[in-house]
Write a structure and sequence with these properties.
The protein is an alpha/beta fold and 202 residues long. The longest helix has 42 residues, at 2-43. A seven-stranded mixed beta sheet has the order 1-7-6-3-4-5-2. The chain is built from five helices and seven strands; from the N terminus they run αβββαβαβαββα.
């Protein structure tokens, strides 16, 4: 008799436990998709089957060096220039016309958009030739903080890719991403924001 009473008393407790477990599972089924959606939104720019970056990855990455580069004053650029910070690189040939100025403006705005991480990003205008063009003085005034350099020798110039594109160099000195000159600046900003967020160097 006592055994039957204990079995009867235990049944409601077991039912309550099962009911609670069922509620937890139902909650998890609804909450999990929301959590995943929030995470993807936080990471940003998630498209199934697509890459996240807006620029084209340079594969394999291409090491670059400041060896053989001279600044606007004719002094050698620090050999470690491409180390320790992210570099937005624009290589120009000939005069700096409207398209050139527009590109330099975009580079400036992309850097400014990085907010608290602005000091982790630098900009370089790279030229070729035996002498620094006269127009670089005007460019330097319009774009403070821009490094203007020229490849003094064919060997130094050969280290870098051709003109006509924007390039991103990582803090280890590797050219790793490129953009068309008419690329949407918002895409460049997003790529750089993401790289700065996940990077432990630079």
């Amino acid at each position: 008799m006592n055994g039957q009473q204990m079995d009867t008393a235990a049944t409601p407790a077991a039912q309550v436990k099962r009911a609670r477990l069922t509620l937890v599972l139902i909650f998890a089924l609804f909450a999990l998709p929301l959590a995943v959606a929030w995470l993807l939104n936080f990471v940003g720019d998630f498209t199934p089957g697509a890459t996240v970056n807006h620029g084209a990855l340079v594969q394999p990455v291409r090491p670059v060096s400041a060896e053989g580069l001279l600044d606007a004053q004719g002094a050698a650029v620090d050999i470690a220039y491409f180390r320790g910070e992210w570099t937005l690189l624009f290589r120009q040939t000939g005069e700096c016309g409207d398209a050139c100025h527009q590109t330099l403006y975009v580079l400036r705005q992309v850097r400014l958009a990085q907010g608290k991480n602005i000091d982790r990003v630098r900009r370089m205008l790279l030229l070729d030739g035996v002498a620094m063009p006269a127009w670089t003085g005007d460019v330097a005034q319009h774009y403070p903080g821009l490094t203007i350099a020229r490849a003094a020798t064919p060997k130094a110039a050969a280290v870098f890719p051709p003109a006509g594109r924007l390039y991103l160099v990582d803090p280890l000195g590797n050219l790793m991403m490129e953009y068309a000159l008419d690329a949407d600046p918002r895409g460049i900003i997003k790529d750089l924001e993401r790289l700065l967020r996940i990077s432990y160097v630079g």
